[in-house]
Write a structure and sequence with these properties.
globular, about 0% strand, mainly alpha
């Protein structure tokens, strides 16, 4: 991956992680876990996208963080299957960390079938997320049964950047998988 693109991906993922961390801080108890998981994912993706100078400690640390995030995602699955994406993302991060460790840095590593399946998943996720974001334009439409302020049909309060952050992280994951 070109150096400029890698640093742009680091900045995008770190900004997404920071936004999710702020969202976790102000979220109610039922949504705090998912927001914290997305924050960890954003920061881990930023660390993984760092150019090849992380040293030998990088891949093992990323593997441990990704496995911890996967355990957290399994815990979140108690609340419903809609948290399965967090599990897929965490396992994809662990897979890429293993590939970095085996390949000694960014580059060709990993099983083609697994990489291909993850590429298909994230390409679909990004296309669907982008379509939802584009069609959600204009004023937020109230979600039936929501109490309080205006809620967007895409899943957040008016002015909420959560769908854009999810799309950015999905795009980052797709870019990193393409670089494998």
């Amino acid at each position: 991956m070109p150096l400029t693109l890698a640093w742009m991906l680091v900045a995008l993922c770190a900004a997404s992680g920071g936004y999710c961390l702020l969202r976790a801080r102000r979220a109610d108890r039922s949504r705090r876990g998912a927001a914290a998981g997305e924050a960890v994912m954003g920061f881990a993706m930023a660390a993984m996208a760092l150019p090849q100078g992380t040293g030998s400690w990088g891949p093992p640390v990323l593997l441990v963080v990704s496995c911890g995030a996967a355990l957290h995602a399994l815990w979140l699955l108690r609340g419903g299957v809609h948290h399965a994406h967090h599990l897929v993302g965490s396992l994809a991060m662990a897979y890429m960390a293993l590939g970095m460790y085996a390949g000694h840095g960014h580059g060709r590593a990993g099983l083609p079938a697994v990489t291909g399946a993850l590429l298909l998943y994230y390409a679909g996720y990004v296309l669907l997320g982008g379509a939802r974001l584009v069609t959600a334009g204009g004023a937020p439409q109230p979600v039936p049964g929501s109490a309080g302020g205006a809620r967007s049909a895409v899943g957040g309060a008016a002015g909420d950047l959560t769908p854009a952050c999810r799309l950015a992280m999905g795009t980052g994951m797709l870019a990193m998988l393409l670089a494998m």
